[in-house]
């Protein structure tokens, strides 16, 4: 544990470095932060902080920069929490409510807003279809033997597919079949569609039942996994840490790996989480920090979102913005019920 003076010096170095992206010297700290001690004393404290792993010196003649350990202590013990304002909430809500009727569009918009608010790269993991609940089925005649199947899954996911039947069905027959299918499927989650339920659908609804089973088992199988949406890639590439072409290239390649982000954002714990530098297991993002949170429907976690940027980020503001987007998305998804 650091004493009060070392903590104040560390905080000053970190906040200066976040602002300027330049190594910080003792004279700068003495001039800007008025810690009540001489530059020589600050220099000694910075040397101690370097020796204990909280600061690093990139070059012999340079000032100091924070280490991952320094950032971690800052986030856990020194950072002044920041809350989003009512005006920020109203602005985000007014943008997201435009996509209220379709969950996929709403989730994508959440990622775009998060990237814009933080000027960072944003990632949103959408829930897999197997977590969703059947809300409504409708069969609509297209022509003599083509039927449009409309599936509405909660919360507000719509899937459409035109299927061809062996015989023609009248509008009245399709209405009756739709009623029966709704009675059978409403309230069931996709993952609960076991062999017994599927056999019952075929047995009770004949050819239309067979078509429905084909659609449910094969037509939607490619959507069983979580979807990963990303936004704001150019924001992170504008940071001075990524002016190096090779470093930028390595990050871009990592950014395209869906499994990487599913693993990094896959925790179900509530609240905002911060992973700093080498706390991230993938070597190509160990110069970065992640700020992530889960979002939910009625308290049940269904997905996660977050931002990625250099370790030199405004952690308090990032945490506040991630919390704002996650809580607003959760509110809108819950209201869809």
- Poorly predicted runs are none
Assign the CATH architecture of the largest domain.
2-Layer Sandwich
Number of helices: 12
- CATH topology name of the largest domain, in short, is Beta-Lactamase
User: Percent of residues in beta strands?
Assistant: 15-25%
Distance between the amino and carboxyl termini: 48 Å
> What average pLDDT do the residues reach?
86
> What number of domains?
3
CATH superfamily label of the largest domain: GAF domain
Shape verdict:
elongated
**N-to-C SSE string, H for helix and E for strand:** HHHEEHHHEEEEHHEHHHEEEH
Kindly state the number of beta strands. Answer: 10
- Tell me about the biggest sheet? 5 strands, antiparallel
CATH class of the largest domain: Alpha Beta
Instruction: Going across the biggest sheet, name each strand in turn.
Output: 7-3-10-9-8
Helix content: 40-55%
In terms of structural class, how would the helical and strand content be classed? alpha+beta
Structure description:
By secondary structure, this protein is of the alpha+beta class. The chain has 3 domains: 4-78, Winged helix-like DNA-binding domain superfamily/Winged helix DNA-binding domain (Arc Repressor Mutant, subunit A), CATH 1.10.10.10; 86-127 and 226-335, Beta-Lactamase, CATH 3.30.450.40; 130-223, 2-Layer Sandwich (Enolase-like, domain 1), CATH 3.30.390.60. The protein is 47% helix and 20% strand. It has 12 helices and 10 strands. The strands form 3 sheets. It has a 5-stranded antiparallel β-sheet with strand order 7-3-10-9-8, with helices on both faces. Strands 4-5-6 form a 3-stranded antiparallel β-sheet. A two-stranded antiparallel sheet has the order 1-2. The longest helix has 25 residues, at 195-219. The protein is elongated.
């Amino acid at each position: 544990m650091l004493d009060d003076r070392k903590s104040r010096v560390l905080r000053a170095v970190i906040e200066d470095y976040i602002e300027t992206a330049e190594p910080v010297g003792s004279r700068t700290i003495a001039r800007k932060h008025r810690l009540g001690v001489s530059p020589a004393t600050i220099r000694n404290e910075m040397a101690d902080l370097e020796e204990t792993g909280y600061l690093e010196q990139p070059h012999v003649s340079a000032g100091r920069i924070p280490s991952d350990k320094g950032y971690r202590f800052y986030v856990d013990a020194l950072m002044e929490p920041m809350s989003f304002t009512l005006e920020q909430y109203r602005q985000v809500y007014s943008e997201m409510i435009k996509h209220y009727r379709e969950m996929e569009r709403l989730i994508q918009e959440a990622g775009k807003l998060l990237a814009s608010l933080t000027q960072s790269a944003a990632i949103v993991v959408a829930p897999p279809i197997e977590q969703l609940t059947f809300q409504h089925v409708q069969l609509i005649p297209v022509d003599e033997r083509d039927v449009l199947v409309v599936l509405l899954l909660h919360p507000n996911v719509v899937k459409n597919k035109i299927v061809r039947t062996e015989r023609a069905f009248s509008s009245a027959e399709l209405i009756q079949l739709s009623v029966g299918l709704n009675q059978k499927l409403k309230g069931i989650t996709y993952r609960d569609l076991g062999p017994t339920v599927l056999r019952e659908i075929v047995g009770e609804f004949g050819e239309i039942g067979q078509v429905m089973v084909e659609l449910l088992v094969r037509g939607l199988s490619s959507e069983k996994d979580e979807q990963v949406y990303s936004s704001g890639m150019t924001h992170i590439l504008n940071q001075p840490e990524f002016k190096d072409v090779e470093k930028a290239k390595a990050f871009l390649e990592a950014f395209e790996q869906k499994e990487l982000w599913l693993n990094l954002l896959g925790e179900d714990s509530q609240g905002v989480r911060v992973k700093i530098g080498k706390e991230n297991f993938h070597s190509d993002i160990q110069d970065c920090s992640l700020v992530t949170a889960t979002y939910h429907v009625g308290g049940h976690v269904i997905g996660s979102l977050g931002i990625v940027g250099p370790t030199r980020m405004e952690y308090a503001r990032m945490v506040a913005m991630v919390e704002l987007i996650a809580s607003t998305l959760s509110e809108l998804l819950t209201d869809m019920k």
